[in-house]
Amino acid sequence: MKVTSAISRTVSKVGLVLGFCMLSTALMAADTIKVGVLHSLSGTMAISETTLKDTVLMMVEEQNKKGGLLGKKLEAVVVDPASNWPLFAEKTRELLSQKKVDVIFGCWTSVSRKSVLPVIEELNGLLFYPVQYEGEESSKNVFYTGAAPNQQAIPAVDYLMEELEVERWVLAGTDYVYPRTTNKILEAYLLHKGVAKKDILVNYTPFGHSDWQSIVSNIKKFGSEGKKTAVVSTINGDANVPFYKELGNQGVSAEDIPVVAFSVGEEELSGLDTKPLVGHLAAWNYFQSVESDENEEFIAQWKKFIKDDKRVTNDPMEATYIGFNMWASAVEKAGTTDVDTVEQALIGITTPNLTGGTAVMNRNHHLSKPVLIGEIQEDGQFEVVSETDGVVPGDAWSDFLEGSKDLVADWVKPIRCGNFNAKTAKCSGQNF
Amino acid sequence: MVILTLKLQNVLVKISNRNFIFTICFIEASGDYPGASFFSTEYIVLKIFQHSMPVKSPVKYAIMLVLVFLSATNIVESVYAQHDETGVIQAGPGQIVQLGDKLARAKLKNVQTVLVKMEAAGGDAVLALYQAMLSGDLFYVKDASSVSGNAALRRLVIASKTENRTYLLQDAITLDSLGERTKKQIKKVRSNNKLRGYLRSAIARLTLNSEQPEIRKSAVENMLDSLDSKSIPYLEKAREQESESDIIELIDVAIALNVLRTSEDVDLRLQAIETVQQSLRPVVRNSLTQLLEQDEQSAFIEPNAPIRAKAREALDDFQNKLDFYGLLETIFFGLSLGSVLLLVATGLAITFGVMGVINMAHGELIMLGAYTTYVVQLWMPNNIEYSVLVAIPVAFIVSGMVGIAIERGVIRHLQGRPLETLLATFGISLILQQAVRSMFSPLNRQVATPDWMGGSLEFNAVFSITYNRLYILIFALLVFFALQLIMKKTSLGLYVRAVSQNRDMAKAIGIRTEWVDAMTFGLGSGIAGIAGVALSQLTNVGPNLGQAYIIDSFMVVVFGGVGNLWGTLVGGMSLGLVNKFLEPATGAVLANILVLVFIILFIQKRPRGLFPQKGRAAES
Question: CB atoms < 10 A from the CB of A317, how many?
Answer without folding.
Answer: 27
